[in-house]
Amino acid sequence: MKAPTIVQTTGKRKAAIARATVRKGQGQMRFNGIPLELVEPEIVRQKIQEPLLMVGDRVRQLNISVRARGGGIIGQASAARTAVARGLVEWLKDDGLRSTFRHYDRTLLVNDPRRKLPKRPGGRGARARRQKSYR
Q1: How far is CA 115 from CA 12, 23, 40, 96, 100, in A?
Q2: Tens digit of pLDDT for each residue in 22-79?
Q3: How many whole angstroms separate alpha carbon 10 and alpha carbon 79?
Q4: Half-sphere exposure of 73 (CA within 13 A, CB side)
Q5: CA separation for the pair 33, 112 (Å, rounded)
Q6: Rounded distance, CA 37 to CA 40, Å?
Q7: In angstroms, how far is the first alpha carbon of the chain from the final one?
Q8: What are the pLDDT digits (tens) for 39-50?
Q9: Quick one: fold of 6-108?
């Protein structure tokens, strides 16, 4: 079976949505237009690199570009991580890699379904209520 010329995948976490594009290339990785080596803070960089480190040298022939929108920086990093892992599995067509990702951390392949609860009347947030005073 012939390898695809381009693979596009998505990942979601909280309010963040990331789109990853995987192409044949020289091993470049970009996150929101910035090379991954320059992404700050370091924890975000490490979170996005996780699936790349698990794949190893096979990533050297691929260019990966990730665009993330919405949410905060950690939500974007988690969404990007899911998108990158899905893209690698789809590009490499490796069931062993899929099971490795699944055993390591299921959120590499599956979006995190948790969302924020809506605010309700009678309080400041979703769960907090105003206190009663009888005196």
Answers
A1: 11, 32, 25, 31, 27
A2: 999 998 999 999 999 999 899 999 999 999 998 888 889 999 999 999 999 999 999 9
A3: 8
A4: 9
A5: 25
A6: 9
A7: 78
A8: 989 999 999 999
A9: Ribosomal Protein S5; domain 2 (3.30.230)
CA–CA separation, 133 vs 98, rounded Å?
56
Q: Kindly state the DSSP code that residue 93 receives in the 8-state scheme.
A: T
Give CA–CA dist 41/79, Å, rounded. Answer: 16
Quote the pTM value: 0.85
Q: Give dist(CA 34, CA 122) in Å, integer.
A: 44
CA distances 55 to 75, 83, 87, 128, Å, are 23, 14, 12, 44
